[in-house]
Structure formats: C-alpha cells, structure tokens
Design a protein that fits this description.
The chain has 189 residues and is mainly beta. It folds into 2 domains: 18-83, UDP N-Acetylglucosamine Acyltransferase, domain 1 (3 Solenoid), CATH 2.160.10.10; 113-189, Hexapeptide repeat proteins (UDP N-Acetylglucosamine Acyltransferase, domain 1), CATH 2.160.10.10. It is built from 1 helix and 22 strands. A hairpin with a 4-residue loop joins strand 21 (158-161) and strand 22 (166-170).
Amino acid sequence: MFENIKNAIRILKEKPIDYFVHESSYIDEYAVIGTGTKIWHFTHVMSGAKIGYNCTIGQGVFIGDNVVIGDNVKIQNNVSLCEGIIVQDDVFIGANATFINVGNPRANIPRKNEIKTTLLKKGCSIGANSTIIAGTTIGDYSMVTAGSVVTKNVDTQTVVDGNPAIFKWMVCKCGKSFGTHYVICNNCK
C-alpha cells in the first residue's frame, strides 16, 4: 500500500504543473492541486490538502491538512479551512467566512482527536463573514447569507439567515428565490 502511495506522489512530482500559484503563496509538499486551479497571493496549502480542477483560491486563504476541495470551487479572500472541512463541487465561499472544527477549543488542551467534519455540499454558497460551527452540513445548492452564524445543518436548496441562522426561503439550483415551497424555475427545468 505505501509503495503505491509513494509511486503516486512520485508521478505527481514529475507531472508538469498545470495550475497557477502566485509566487507569494506557499504550497506544502504532497498537496494535490487540480488542473486549471488558480491560487492567489499569500495563500498556504498544507501537505494533505486536495484541491480539485478549475478552482479559484483568493488572497490570504489557509487550507489545512486533509481538507478536501472539489472542482469549480471559488474561495474568496481571507478564508481558513482547517482540518475536518470537506467542500464538494461548485461551492462558493465568500470573503472572511469562518469555519470552526472543534466544539470547545482551549489553547492549553490538545483537541486534535475531537475535530468534527463539516460538509459543504454541491453548489452551496456561503456568504461573506459567515461563521459555520463544527460538525454541520450545508445542503446541496443552499445559501447562507452574509454574516450569518450556522449552528445546525442546512437543508438542500434553502436560504438561512441571522444569528443563529434560521430558514428564510427556498431557492432553485440557479439561486432564484421561491417562497417556502420548493419549485424548479423555468431556466432549470
């Protein structure tokens, strides 16, 4: 098994770089980055991170060990994705969004064994300055409005708002707003 991993890493190292990394950014050895991805100023990608194809990673982003990011993801400036975060395809994360990975952190008590998985499902949008509490799931094509604090799971194709974030209305996959009942808009049929 370890021989296969070593061989895969050797192949990755020999493969020509087909993504963009700004010279001020730091990419740790063994991080995996997909074709067409752009990583901008002052970003740090840790060793175990996996970033998909055609992603845009903004300025001042931190991507921790074992973070998985799907394809076509857009992460705006100053976002930290710590270990335990999984981002599926087509997700948008607004500037300064905050993700918590431990429920009760203390500086003097190690909590690595208490990291919770937070899942951002396909096509969801996280508004700027939002806070996502550890262990939550943000549903497919849902939206978290700017500045909201998500303390519990968000259902598929819903909009949540506030502190704590609560249900506001339903949205189509394209983002068109509906009332409290789900409908597919004419463009998405």
